[in-house]
């Protein structure tokens, strides 16, 4: 068979009913666009989340007070039972080389939303209390000024390093270093300003004020415990050992014999990354499956229109048969037409999907203040086109078969 | 050996327990190079006969030998291939593809042939030239007169140089002048190029362009006679 010629004549047959063809492929276009959009955004979201987690460093272990949430129905997940289980005593125990030999540093973190004000300006900021090692863990160093040190922590110094957004809101263009901002009725002297950093995992450093954890505990939050302990292992390879040593040390300290009764939860960044990856994977697959339903509907639309077309062109089919077309020739012709329709729909859908997901990545990046990376999803594009070709074949077969079975005289008589 | 040999050929439609005979036992031979007209009132079975002779339909009783072979042994695909290679059809309603150029319409049988696509243009153009429409090659059927449309249909029928051309009331939708032109072409194809022609018509005048007339009535042959005074369409009158 002369494939190219058949292709050409299938194209011209579709051109005859231009608006009908366009409307017919709309279902496929929408389906493929939706699948593309979902998978691209899902993939970007995943790589964003993972890069956030990984930016903390693969040597990092986070210890959260309370029980490991075992499911949404577990009340401890909501109430964070034993929320005050992590204190200075725990840090000291962890830092003992006999307990956790491969531990490099353990850093306490307390945090909460508090309004910070200067002059007449007020801004709702994230107050983070920690040590100067925080800078290394989050890879964030003051652009102007400097970080507080051990002595400031011991002295409960009322000093703060502020994020660039907080600085802009309170001080505008004027210099912030040396000025005092008010948080919870106390004056904190600004000693440093962070460069723009955006969201890192749970913290948006641009809107934060970082203060010594001692000052934050006593003067702002009024608590004795920590919200997190971040542990840095000496090497990446030692992370599992450190994790195990942390659990052993804390259980011993808290007299816990059954791990079921743990009042803390330690996890490495690698584990978190894996969990998040699984969650985003499942979400993406689920959403793509929902989008695929529209492809099914689009396919049924194609079948419907092809059936109409076969009836309309009964006399053409008869003529072709009279001139020597076999049933298979006719079958092929109509399958070509439906496949061209869906392939065209798939191509448009892929283009639209890529364009829309590119726009979405820009908009989401702006809204969430994150570097939302975009890459052309070649695999999804390839898959989208392959699926549309298959839809054309699958839903084109029945109408094409009906066409091929028409008897030439019945077909010629039809007017 | 005759090109076509039918013996006691019958076509009976079975439906709702009723048997409706369209043809009930016809026998005749058609030799290579014959020009045969089949006549009869409507309902006489002439269209059914043409459809069976042209492999568009199958008979229910009797024998049909084409080139000495019984067609019972052929599959539908075999019939399609023989139709493509050895038969040409001209219909009353022209049956051209709309919104398709004359050239592409004439190429249609080539699509189902073994001939390579590179040769199609020349073959189709030669056929169009043979019916005198070379200037209309890029036109679409809607731009042509009825007579011109039928000439395109003839070009399409003879593009693969068939053994036999079946013409089903080819002049039925044409004025007498265009009708004569068509008969002229058919006569030329028969006499100059040796094509066998089987013509269906209900007009005696048209039928008398053939060399032999088979008259059907109620599915049976009423008469089968050689035409004594054959009409010859004069070429000069129509192609100016």
TrEMBL record, chain B:
Annotated keywords: ATP-binding, Nucleotide-binding, Transport
PROSITE patterns membership: ABC_TRANSPORTER_1, ABC_TRANSPORTER_2
GO CC list: membrane protein complex; plasma membrane
Listed name of the protein: Macrolide ABC transporter ATP-binding protein
Pfam families, sorted: ABC_tran
CDD domains in the cross-refs: ABC_MJ0796_LolCDE_FtsE
ABC transporter domain sequence ranges: 4-239
Domain of life: Bacteria
Gene3D superfamilies linked to this entry: P-loop containing nucleotide triphosphate hydrolases (3.40.50.300)
InterPro entries the UniProt entry points to: AAA+_ATPase, ABC_transporter-like_ATP-bd, ABC_transporter-like_CS, ABC_transpr_LolD-like, MacB-like_ATP-bd, P-loop_NTPase
GO molecular function, one term: transmembrane transporter activity
